[in-house]
Write a structure and sequence with these properties.
- The complex is a heterodimer.
- Chain A is of the alpha+beta class.
- Chain A contains 21 helices and 21 strands.
- In chain A, the strands form seven sheets. In chain A, strands 2, 3, 4, 5 and 8 form a five-stranded mixed β-sheet that branches. In chain A, strands 10-9-21-20-19 form a five-stranded antiparallel β-sheet, with helices on both faces. Chain A has a three-stranded antiparallel β-sheet with strand order 1-6-7.
- In chain A, helix 10 runs antiparallel to helix 21.
- The longest helix of chain A has 28 residues.
- By secondary structure, chain B is mainly alpha-helical.
- Helices cover about 75% and strands about 0% of the residues of chain B.
- At the A-B interface, strand 3, strand 7 and helix 10 of A face helix 1 and helix 2 of B.
Amino acid sequence: MSAATQGLVRLPVWRARFVMAALLAAFALLAGRSVYLQAMRTDFLQEKGEARYARVLEVPATRGTIFDRNGEALAVSTPVKSVWAIPADVELNAAHERKLAELLGLTRKELHRKLSDTSRDFVYLKRQLAPEAADAIASLGLNGIHSHREFRRYYPGGEVTAHVVGFTGVEDAGQEGVELAFQSTLGGRPGSRRVIKDRLGRIVEDVQSIRAAQDGAELRLSLDSKLQNIAYRALKDAVEQHRAKAGAIVAIDVRTGEILALANAPSYNPNSRTGLSGAQLRNRVITDAFEPGSTLKPFTVALALETGKASASTVFETPQGRMTMANYTIRDSHPAKAVTVAQVIQKSSNVGAAKLALSLPRETMWDHFRRIGFGAAPELGFPGAATGKLRHHRTWRPIEQATMGYGHGISVSLLQLARAYTVFATDGELLPVTLVKQESVVSGDKVLSAQTARAVRAMLEMAVQSGGTGPRARVVGWRVAGKTGTAHKQENGGYAADKYLSSFVGFAPVSAPRLIVAVMIDEPAGGQYYGGAVAAPVFAQVMQGALRMLNVPHDAPLEPLEMPSEAELREST
Amino acid sequence: MAKLNLLLLAVLVTCAIGLVTSQHRARKLFSDLERELDRARELDIEHGRLQLEASTWGLHPRVEKIATGQLGMRAPDPRRVRVVSSRVVQPRTR
């Protein structure tokens, strides 16, 4: 035993101690490292760890849909796919290449060119592709070909509703029309949230919502797309027939002040907006002010009746239909020795209207024009609404006051003019107009007494009967009332002799007015230019269709109308 | 004492397993929720697309063209229109 013990080599003590120390040192190192990692680098490490499973996701928001009053969509956002590639990663065989080019709607050469620059990391192959085509491409399972979702705005109404609805730009922000006017409510706000994903990419936990996504609100316009279509077609046909520069039309519901139709010609297709001209984009109804001419006479007459300066049967002398003031001669198209106040409207006498205007105090006349909404933009929230021009009464010269009586030296937009006619269509109330659907009947400001409003309404009805200037505005089955206008256009500070603005504003049915329609045709060049010949037929066509569509009870017999000859429609301004 | 420890151990293990199970269930439910929300979004988009399609098919110029062209419809002559008063159906009492 001892021999065996003796036989063992006795190791030096330091070796055991060395191993011990080495082990201890190793432990100390580990402990130190763990303290360093746990205590000092913990934030960094946690962040890195989280990055492996936590993701921040974009939550897309869609833009609100725009509807007409009956719930028909006028502007809808739908998702489309944009297909892009990392050229260096793309390997295509001939069959795939052909298929891909076909799905993208590109030729093989174009596709080849797009993929040839391998130094780039990101190349759009096709933007805003239909989702079906993008899905088909994804199912090919090609390397280096990717897609992402974008939203595109579609306008089913196309050119018919283009000026009201407007359009959005690249960043889904409104640029024109209602899209711009209601951008703050229509536009959604995309949100983002932090989530935890598992190894299969499924979201397993919501960590926090950084910002909640908010979809844009829907918008219901007052527009009636059927009526809008009738109005646009009638206007477009008239502009083409009379080879006019432009035209505008607006229809207002007399009970609610809602704009049921608003159209301009020329128009444009908001779905493909290449090569648009300013003339096409212009919303003349709202943004253009013009000298209205005779369509303004009823307001002069109304004020004269209201202030007691005249009655419907007061007679004015109009020697040969002429009146000269300060080197300027006011002329009538239907010269007569004398006219009654009612005939001023029926025959559209400029001299009569001028004399009536001169009988009124300037301030009263100015105040009256202000109160029916001239010289101030209607509160529509619409971009670029024209205020028109109404100079302060202190700057008026007598000749200006006289011409203003028949609508010159003052400018208004077609919408202002149509709205002003609500005082005759109601019993003297000026209604606020709106492009948004209203739920209830509105009341406006009382501007005229019911008696005056009714008297002028009767005169306006006479103006569209035989003997008046606008018999072509009549429709079968309903009584209409309205006023024609034929104004010389202003040019270089004077009036152009051969350029006219034909207009007609009226309402129906007279027994219980429901709808106001205002039509304006700019520079008709087809030979005819009187408002009664150019604008009145458009009014009749739209009014006839609209009243039938709205199921308005008839107040006149259903008999065909006898149309007068051309000569009777004459009137100027 | 030992018995109490054993009991506590058993309780602890049960709780631990319960926690794991409920966490798992929560995650599963959450992923279901996500899936349904995704579906809701998809359906919403589909709805928009269908609205667009309905509007396009129902375009008034198109309807008008089919009505006048294919179906040969037109507005009636005013002389042939008879207006029926609703009072006939529902006599007014006063």
